[in-house]
């Protein structure tokens, strides 16, 4: 018998959320602990209650998950240890008791990203039905399993339909086929987690704050630091600094390890330009293979 300690992993729950599916694919079924919100997951790992947290970072159709970015980049001391890219398939479901009355539903509940991923479908089929935002797709599914008399449909994955005994009214209602979400594995350690099927390249996530004096051309200078070193950026996003209107910082993903000499040089040069640079770790990406969920 192996005496290897099973890590505890917080994930955005309840069970059968997409985050659960992603966490399960990476860590297996043991040690996974559902938390009701993204900040709860982040705080659990900061407080040492769990070893890791798995939280959604970005969806291919909807873009970044602001809650994760806000908690990760504003004051947390966590690092990204791995990234899991998961295919997302959304289904419309109701409680078995409501299966004959789908025409009479009074609201459609789900996570805001899931509602947005099915925007066209909802406009075409349920234009006048109010949409209600929930903390996760699985939270919506769990709710209607516990309230069979309420005339609510939800958008969630197949695992949620199975787990909460719901009737799938329509499958694959997401507007575009290429629907993937990136999840981050976070911990207090600066480390890269190894797992089967990792990407060839390491990715580094940087948070860059501009110098106080608002010089013209500073963004161009920042990008040149990476460009002449042939460091490939896979993402650049600006987010509010929350210090005043128009004050932003940049999140930049670079396809190189921060230990690489070119990266060290780039970070040093950015500091000389009076930018403040914080690294959130270098890590691998894992593509989760499509499953029935
Ligand atoms: O609601 C869930 O099931 C989640 O895991 C959250 C989340 C998200 O934040 O985008 C994850 C993947 C899907 O894109 C929809 C919702």
Can you give a write-up of this model?
It contains 9 helices and 15 strands. By secondary structure, it is of the alpha/beta class. It folds into 3 domains: 9-88 and 179-188, D-Maltodextrin-Binding Protein, domain 2 (3-Layer(aba) Sandwich), CATH 3.40.190.10; 91-170, Periplasmic binding protein-like II (D-Maltodextrin-Binding Protein, domain 2, 3-Layer(aba) Sandwich), CATH 3.40.190; 203-286, Alpha-Beta Plaits. The strands form 2 sheets. Strands 1, 2, 3, 4, 5, 11, 12, 13, 14 and 15 form a 10-stranded mixed sheet that branches. Strands 8-7-9-6-10 form a 5-stranded mixed sheet. It is globular. The model has no long low-confidence stretch (mean pLDDT 94). Prephenic acid is lined by residues 12, 17-19, 56, 59, 65, 88, 111, 113-114, 136-138, 181. It catalyses: prephenate + H(+) = 3-phenylpyruvate + CO2 + H2O. Keywords: Amino-acid biosynthesis, Aromatic amino acid biosynthesis, Lyase, Phenylalanine biosynthesis. This is Prephenate dehydratase. GO terms for molecular function: prephenate dehydratase activity.
């Amino acid at each position: 018998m192996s005496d290897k300690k099973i890590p505890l992993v917080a994930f955005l729950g309840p069970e059968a959320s997409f985050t659960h599916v992603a966490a399960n694919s990476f860590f297996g079924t043991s040690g996974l602990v559902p938390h009701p919100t993204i900040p709860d997951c982040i705080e659990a790992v900061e407080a040492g209650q769990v070893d890791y947290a798995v939280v959604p970072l970005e969806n291919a159709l909807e873009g970044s998950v602001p809650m994760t970015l806000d908690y990760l980049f504003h004051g947390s001391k966590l690092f990204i240890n791995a990234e899991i890219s998961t295919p997302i398939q959304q289904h419309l479901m109701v409680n078995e008791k409501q299966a004959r009355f789908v025409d009479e539903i009074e609201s459609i509940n789900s996570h805001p990203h899931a509602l947005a991923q099915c925007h066209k479908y909802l406009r075409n089929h349920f234009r006048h039905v109010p949409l209600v935002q929930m903390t996760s797709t699985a939270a919506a599914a769990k709710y209607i399993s516990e309230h069979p008399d309420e005339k609510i449909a939800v958008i969630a994955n197949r695992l949620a339909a199975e787990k909460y005994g719901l009737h799938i009214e329509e499958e694959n209602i997401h507007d575009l086929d290429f629907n993937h979400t990136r999840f981050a594995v976070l911990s207090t350690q600066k480390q890269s987690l190894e797992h089967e099927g990792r990407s060839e390249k390491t990715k580094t996530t940087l948070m860059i704050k501009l110098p106080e004096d608002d010089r013209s051309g500073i963004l161009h200078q920042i990008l040149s630091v990476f460009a002449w070193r042939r460091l490939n950026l896979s993402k650049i996003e600006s987010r509010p600094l929350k210090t005043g209107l128009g004050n932003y910082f940049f999140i930049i993903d670079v396809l190189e390890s921060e230990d690489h000499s070119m990266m060290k040089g780039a970070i040093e040069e950015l500091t000389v330009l009076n930018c403040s640079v914080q690294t959130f770790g270098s890590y691998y990406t894992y593509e989760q293979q499509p499953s029935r969920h």
